[in-house]
Amino acid sequence: MRERMLATERVRAVEWRDGRLYLLDQRRLPFEERWLGHDTAAEVAAAIRHMVVRGAPAIGIAAAYGLLLGVRDRLAAGGDWRAALEEDFAELAAVRPTAVNLAWALQRMRARLDRLRNDAGVLEALEAEAREIHQSDREANLTMAQYGVELIRKHDKAPQRILTHCNAGALATGGFGTALGVIRAAWLEGLVEQVYADETRPWLQGARLTAWELAGEGVPVSLVADAAAAHLMKTRGIDWVIVGADRITANCDVANKIGTYQLAVNAMHHGVRFMVVAPTSTIDMSLDSGDDIPIEERDGRELLEIGGQPLAARVPALNPVFDVTPADLVDVLVTERGVIERPDAAKLALLMCRKRLH
Ligand code: MRU
Q: Is residue 205 lining ligand 1, measured as CB closer than 6 Å?
């Protein structure tokens, strides 16, 4: 199955080449495939802030390479470059607060740096660390896709109708995708009848990115308005809601794109299974519950305008871009270390201290 998955891989979001970080500009998709080169930590921070790259794992990967660029510049400037580098750590860490993968990746870069006593080989070691963060995310996605398929098959062998929200695909990760990785692999196994992609206002990650990724592989996908979800669950026999995550706390509460919580409530009401697919880099055991997760609020203009054109009355707009789904609405959590059905704090603690459950 792994070989078949790899054969379908078509989309990448992040590329490190010849000492530059290239990011596929996701603001332009699906209309234009434009890669932007980045040479400094500040440029990478701006790219994350302005959504050139988005999706929790992809943000973490970009930040790791951004930090590497920071090290290169600070090292060349000489003096107490490790102290000066703190500015880059701080700038990159602050750009988007909800996805914990950002802090996780920077923490890994810091740990690697701290192990290096002198400056010889610093750049090579940190480049290797950033590449490893990138590569291991892709590997995790391939593993999770297989676990997700086993789960779907366990519940029902007939092709499934699946609803997804936002974009948790190759574009949001180091490759293949989390939620979309499961959906893609299930399609390859003949387990998908139809995918419904929520538009995902206001950035339209579902309409622009998920629909594009799936259609490009011939997966049957229909775009639906975010507000159509409950109606579809009632009338179209949705079998699964499958989503990614930006941060999962120790009690298994799940932060993900705004609108996920209402999907989970609706799924519970209609008896639709709710699957969250996320690598362990998205799990934050330092927070007890979702109440502690910082929820990013973006500029209200993202709701009031589209492409600079006004589309609403002139009123203030409130724009929280993530919400928290309580653990008891989640049927199953899929990670690269294993699967947890009816996730709770005890099961997650066990998973986090084991290498593999399967
Ligand atoms: O604002 P975004 O586009 O970065 O939000 C992305 C999401 O909410 C995704 O669902 C999440 O990061 C999981 S991606 C594998």
A: yes
Q: Which domain holds residue 49?
A: 2-136
CATH of the domain at 195: 3.40.50.10470
Q: Of 166, 276, 323, 324, which is best to mutate to test ligand 1, by the most ligand atoms within 8 angstroms of its C-beta? A: 166
Give the tokens for residue 113.
């740096």
Same domain, 69 and 183: no
Domain count, the chain: 2
Q: Is the domain of 215 the same as that of 309? A: yes
* Residue 65 belongs to a domain: yes
pLDDT of residue 157: 84
Q: How far is the CA of 246 from the centre of ligand 1 (A)?
A: 6
pLDDT, tens digit (0-9, with 9 covering 90-100), for 150-198:
999 998 889 999 999 999 999 999 999 999 999 999 999 999 999 999 9
Site of tokens 């109440």 = 291
Name which of 356, 182, 172 is nearest 273 in CA terms.
182
Sign of the dihedral through C-alpha 4, 5, 8, 9: negative
**Active site annotation includes 246:** yes
